[in-house]
Design brief:
This protein has helices at about 1-20, 25-35, 55-60, 100-110, 125-135, 280-290; strands spanning about 45-50, 75-85, 90-95, 135-145, 150-160, 180-190, 195-200, 205-215, 220-230, 235-245, 250-260, 265-275. It has about 290 residues and is of the alpha+beta class.
Length: about 290
């Protein structure tokens, strides 16, 4: 009898850590969301100048049909405004140029830069929406030991094709949002960082995003995101270099390549002249907070 009890206690001792790691799947996801939300909490806002040769290229294409004797305006100065907790960032042309095609160009450029490193995955404000979607899915957690790392894998299988509407990830990393049948999140147990995300659609499109991080004082910032398909037809890469500005780690350069059957594109952007935690113009503040 004593021997039987001893074996039982040994089994419990062996399995308790795994049980503790394999907690509620949604709780694991929300822990990862909170870890991202707490990055550099003293950073409240910034304004930064954006420079890229893409601007000149876009102006040239958009004015190619204009007569040669019609003057083209110089490339506008582009600024980006960011405010913590705002539903969007704002990228806009500064200066006097008001040609319609300049506004169109900046709008297209803004879409290309819809990448916010603190909210790529599991935006914290979408917590309720995630739980609502998960109510119509089966969830499970498994634990994998990789060397000295423990990976907690959360698998979400929807009962029917589901539109996520950015509840689990933003559009910046170009993962599908519609007709999703399963999601797989690999979470580093030490850092609560998502190292890999696999998305499968009803049309059998399977994409995997691998995320690598830069460690800073308050956590881990994504610095490399690669999105691939099993057949190699899709191979996107986003790489970010950082600089210290006002005591914070912020992007100094962002290089993005897209390689897909329907699109091949390269974007190289530099960021300079950061203004940190300074009052934003009222009009800018309203556009950020109201999402207009």
């Amino acid at each position: 009898m004593l021997r039987t009890l001893t074996i039982c206690f040994l089994c419990l001792a062996l399995f308790t850590p795994c049980a503790a790691l394999a907690s509620d799947p949604l709780d694991l996801l929300e822990a990862a969301a909170q870890a991202d939300d707490l990055l550099q909490p003293e950073l409240k806002s910034y304004q930064v100048r954006i420079e890229t040769t893409k601007i000149e290229e876009m102006i040239k294409r958009m004015t190619s049909s204009m007569p040669q004797d019609v003057p083209r305006p110089p490339a506008p100065a582009i600024s980006k405004y960011w405010l913590r907790g705002a539903p969007r960032t704002l990228i806009m042309a500064e200066g006097e140029s008001s040609a319609p095609y300049v506004s169109q160009m900046v709008e297209r450029f803004s879409s290309a830069l819809a990448v916010e490193l603190d909210a790529l995955l599991l935006p914290v404000e979408e917590n309720a929406r995630r739980r609502e979607l998960a109510a119509n899915a089966s969830l499970k957690t498994t634990t994998v030991e990789l060397g000295n790392n423990t990976i907690q894998r959360v698998t979400i299988a929807f009962t029917s094709p589901t539109d996520l509407n950015q509840a689990f990830y933003r559009t910046g990393i170009r993962l599908p949002q519609k007709q999703i049948i399963s999601l797989i999140f690999d979470i580093d147990a030490k850092t609560s960082s998502i190292t890999e995300l696999t998305v499968l659609t009803a049309g059998q499109l399977k994409l995997t995003a691998e995320i690598r991080y830069r460690q800073i004082a308050s956590g881990y910032l994504p610095e490399r995101v690669r999105v691939t398909s099993p057949d190699g037809s899709i191979d996107d890469l986003l790489e970010v270099s950082f600089t210290e500005a006002g005591g914070f780690q912020l992007p100094s350069r962002m290089v993005r390549t897209i390689r897909r059957p329907d699109l091949s594109d390269d974007l190289d952007v530099t960021f300079s002249n950061y203004l940190i935690n300074q009052p934003l113009p009222e009009q800018i503040h309203q556009q950020l907070t109201l999402g207009n």
